[in-house]
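Continuing the series of single-chain predictions for the mutant panel. This is the parent chain; the variants come on the following pages.
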Amino acid sequence: MLPEHLKNAAVVLVDDTPANLRLLESSMKAFGLGNLRAFSDSAEALDWLQRMPWDLLLLDLDMPAPNGFDILESLSQRNRYVAPIIIVSALSRPEDRYKGLSLGANDYICKPLDLPEILLRIRNNLELAMANSALQTQHNQLEEAVQVRTSQLRSSYQSIISMLCRAAGYKENETGGHVLHTGEYAAIMARAIGLSEAQCRDLQLAMPMHDIGKIGISDAILQKPGSFTAEERDIMKYHTRIGFHILNDRAATPLTRLTAEIALCHHEHWDGNGYPQGLEGDEIPLSGRIAAICDVYDALRSARPYKTAWSAEDTLAFFRSRSGTHFDPELVCAFERVFDQLEAIQGSLADQTPER
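Parent structure:
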């Protein structure tokens, strides 16, 4: 007899000879299968199989159209490991067996039938199908759990970024809102050049940490009202390396490695005249090139104690004039395409109360 856990399996029989159907159906009921569906009309069977769930199909080949080969082709997109098909046919030539199996059948039995053998093959195929179905369910549950956990970790990471950005903001009298919005600018730029949504989200999270290294720069330099001396400028430039060392932990995740990369490279220039490494062109990581535009855009369009905000027109003209020197020319083109989107976000900050 059939194991208890297989007795409710949905088994479908398709054969245009009613006597064959009755023999198979009565044998399977005696074997313990109670959820049977039999079709002598192959077109009706195919319609049902494409609409309804089933666990095993016993399929004749030599039938009026659609014949068994046609049905196999129509069901070729199914998961053959959870919905197996056993061909039960009088066509016994090697080429017929090869064609049936190559079209996705799991097993092939030639008529006349040996009932004990076919019942054993039915049990074996159902056992494998049920095991694979259970594994697929477990896989889906684990994948869902991973997605939930990833979302929780991302939310925690966002909270940490917000706190660190507010801490860094105290060093330069900047609001946390302005710093966090650089992430939104980066995501918009990333979408404009066709990066995946996952890459856009990562850039949005990583970008606000670009100046975290300023925590290591003394207030006497960072908040100096006048121009820097050459020595002070060199010290100020070192914030990129400080940020990299803060973020580039041995146990770093891909996301924290991205934040470290941005912290290090967001002051590199397309023509090689930036810092700290003097990288040129495509030597600069894409994340650093995007960050350079977002950082400068935010700085120009934001009011500071020592300056007024630039106008949108002057800001756009600035980027156009430095395309190919300070900034990646292709990214400047993308910047122009999404400029109105950036302006909409920047405008939402105009009346923002400092986050202290």
